[in-house]
Amino acid sequence: MQHCNLNNLPENYAMKYYLYHGLTWPQVSFVAEDHKGRVVGYILAKMDEEASEEPHGHVTSISVLRNYRRLGLANKLMLLSQQAMKTTFSASYVSLHVRKTNRAALSLYKDTLGFEVVEIESSYYADGEDAYSMKLTM
Amino acid sequence: MPPKNVAKAAPAKVAVVADNRTLPSKEAALFKQVLQQYETKQWKKGLKTADTILKSRPDHGETLAMKGLFLASSDRKEEGYEFVKKGVRQDMGSHIVWHVYGLMHRADKNYEEALKCYSQANKIEKDSLNILGDLAILTIHLRHYSAYVDARMAILRAAPRLRRNWLGLAVAQHLDGQFAEADRTMTSYEEMLREVPDREYEHSEVLLYHASILEDAGEFEKCLDFLGDHASQIVDRQAYSVLRAHLLLKLGRKEPAEWAWQTLLEENPDNYNYIKAFVQAKDADVDSTTPEGKAAAVKVLDILTEDFPRSLAVRRLALDLVSGDEFRTKASKYLTDALSKGVPSIFADIKALYADHAKRAIIGELVESYRQSLEATETFGIPLSASSSEETVESSAAYLWTLYFLAQHHSALSAHSTALSLVDLAMAHTPSLPELSMLKARILKRAGDVDGALQAMTDARLLDGQDRFLNSKSAKYHLRADQVDEAEKIVGLFTKKDAPSPLQDLIDMQCLWFLQEEGQSFERQAKYALALKRYHQIFNIFTDIEEDQYDFHSYCLRKMTLRAYVNLLRYADNLRSHPRYMDAAKGAIEIYLQKHDDPSSVAPPPLTNGALEAAEEKKKQDKIEAAKAKKAADAAKEKDSKGKKAVVKKVDEDEVVPVIVDQDPNGDKLLATETPLDVALTFLRPLEKAAGGEVGTWVLSFEVAIRREKYLQALRALRSAHAIDPTSTALHPLIVRFKVLVSHLPEGTLSPTVQTTIDTGLVELLDGKSLDAFNAEVLQRGGAACVVAAAKGTLAAREGAQGEVEELLFQLLRDEANPTLADAVDALKVFRSIKSSKTDEFRKQASQRFPLAKAFRSPEEIAAGLAPRPTGNEGKEVIEES
Hints:
The structure holds 2 protein chains of 2 kinds.
Chain A: H1 2-8, H2 15-24, E1 30-33, E2 39-47, E3 56-64, H3 73-89, E4 93-99, H4 103-112, E5 116-121, E6 131-137
Parallel strand pairs in A: 3-4
Antiparallel strand pairs in A: 1-2, 2-3, 4-6, 5-6
Chain B: H1 25-39, H2 43-56, H3 61-73, H4 77-90, H5 95-107, H6 111-124, H7 129-141, H8 145-158, H9 163-175, H10 179-192, H11 201-216, H12 220-229, H13 237-250, H14 254-267, H15 272-281, H16 291-307, H17 312-321, H18 324-341, H19 346-351, H20 357-377, H21 396-412, H22 416-429, H23 434-446, H24 450-463, H25 468-480, H26 484-491, H27 502-508, H28 512-524, H29 528-559, H30 562-573, H31 579-597, H32 599-602, H33 609-646, H34 668-671, H35 676-690, H36 695-707, H37 711-724, H38 731-743, H39 752-765, H40 771-780, H41 784-797, H42 802-811, H43 821-833, H44 839-849, H45 859-863
Helix pairs in contact in B: 1-2, 2-3, 3-4, 3-5, 4-5, 5-6, 6-7, 7-8, 8-9, 9-10, 10-11, 11-12, 12-13, 13-14, 14-15, 16-17, 17-18, 18-20, 20-21, 21-22, 21-23, 22-23, 23-24, 24-25, 25-26, 25-28, 28-29, 28-31, 29-30, 29-31, 31-35, 31-36, 35-36, 36-37, 37-38, 37-39, 38-41, 40-41, 41-42, 41-43, ...
């Protein structure tokens, strides 16, 4: 997962952070593999850490290798994760952040998966770019 | 005379308490303060208090130890250790001094040493939960399973009301293989709980963990019942369903299993494990090797295809199993669907089938026919149904992707010029698609044209500067062309702006591929110190990742995610089977071996005058930098202690973060080691443990062992490799070399038993043959790799066999041998290693066969920047008549 992430996105994490996800909410993260078992796509997700009335999930990171696109993998990964959030944790909604200029991802979240923009968080990313904060009620 | 007084028996002294442990009341109170000051991290105050005690009691072991602890926490580690050791010497019977010593070692990650200290402390003070807690974690971190059980047992006895102590014991028993005991502990735990709210996550995890213990114990029936009994409390429905389905299958309950797997497939029909299990439930086997077995499996897969038409996995699995006309039909549908949709990865997906040459040929034919049909009529040439001749008109993108597929197909067959002309055709059709330039780059790479490949990949990257994937590929191709500075600049477009350098950011983010590629590039450039530096950096990353598990030993117990925890331990145990670790270990070990064999061959080239001055200048600069950094660190310390006085909070008053300056940024110290074989071992041993199933591991193991003159270890390495793959061409020359080596050892080097063991072992490995027969046999097997192996073997077997070896290697370039580029490069290496006079002749001939390959071009050609021109008939294409 870490390798896939480093190849695709500028937001990267140390291994311990991946382990933290996998050892706290193992049910909600998924990978897509090629026939040799190499990770070509992933979704890294968690449940919101603050205890609240309405448990909700959060997508930390999702991406698919460029040469494995057009297979609907991002869609499949997202749906599997959502399903798990709902069933295991009774999540009522999922949230995520996406770069304002990332048209491909925006289209996936908005058009294919039904996410809605809640607000704009300015300078959310390390390089200063704004993010859309999006939410999907389940 | 009065009777002598009977000597009063002195009251028997139980234990002799060290004279210097008990303190008078004033000092005792101060010592209590010392302990408190440690808890609240007030190092400076603690140091003062400790010194006060020591003024009147300079030999008080426990205070000496605490003083050491304070010193170490204030970045005066060496002094700290001295005082702790003094303290231990003064009062070995005190659990405090051993506890402190253990803390020191643990902070420095010397876990073995820490464990010894904690064990001592625990012997003295058996019931201290403080000590036991740390001890337990150390035992499991070091995988001392039964010691872990003991520790957990003691903890539970001391504090039986804490829920997680029960779980801790169960986990320990489980890991130690005491399944029945673990089961009982879990049951006691579950019975202890009164009201657990329904659907509570933690309890659900606990139950699933209990189930997993039963499964590991082979108690499938019991496990199934357990799941049934607790179904309403388990919230992770997927885990529940999967486990249940597994158990049903294992218990042979075919129909319920089928139903269970079907339900799972409805959620995710692209999961190969689900599909395989379903087929198994229907009494078939997707891994079958018989025609009947395959047909049975296909029948089931066909049913699944109907139920789940959108699942690609099912249909792809079927392609593995069918052949002939059925294959043609199924493959055609699979391919046209993908090409119509424009799926870039379709070739990567299909390529695995190419090992079967019949299938490879069919696919080639099919896609070529699509291409022609699309060119003529914009259709695939496949009627929609048997009755009509109507066909779907495809978008022009379908044509593009068909060309794309064909180009990859021909590249896989090493028909590089055909592949390239197809890519050119595609580019004319759709000029600005990065995929096409990427493909061109890949084709040129496979043909050995490293520079041309770089050019094409750069074109791709420039077409979409926002894409990190293209950026990474581009950087990799720069590294393959040995342009390290360029590569670093390019990745810098995506690394953190506030990092000291792009490279440093990649190291911090544990970017293994880049470090590996750079290391290999440095090796090619004979910059061995820098190469070693990279390989060590990779080694350290793996150490860090292994280290990451430490906190989770207690975290997972708190969160009760116990299945995930056990998986974590197994992951950590297997960590270094990762290909990146293997690559780094191989690179490092090979350099150290070379250093051992001939130190001058790895020394940096002597500097010319200008370069010498530049190097001196750089040394000066480095010294200034280092001094500056130290000054900054000291100043920071100063600032901290000054600044913190203004802060209201008393906690963390004196915490100091030492600035770490890399003492060996270019790896020169690494390369200068006097004990290269020892360092090689540190890379090798984890490899043997985690990657013992790879022939490559044992090749390295052999090379290290013979240089260390550990002949039994060498034999073991050869045997291990042989057990994995007796036909391995990498193994063959090693066996020959070992035989020769052993027969030339002076009398008495080996004890009689060892000699016998080795002799017997060799007879087995050589299959009872003589060296000549052994070499002849591998040659007989045919194929380029075997030719090279035979050549290396002959070289090792006989003095003066040079001419014969050269003959053999020239044979490699004939059509019948069908050499790959890698084989030819390997052969050239052999020529160079024997300093053959025919080296250039071989190179020239190889160059004719592989005209695009940089490896065979002369230095003059490369310098002149002559672009290689594919002749269109480089060698014969590797397509066989079908």
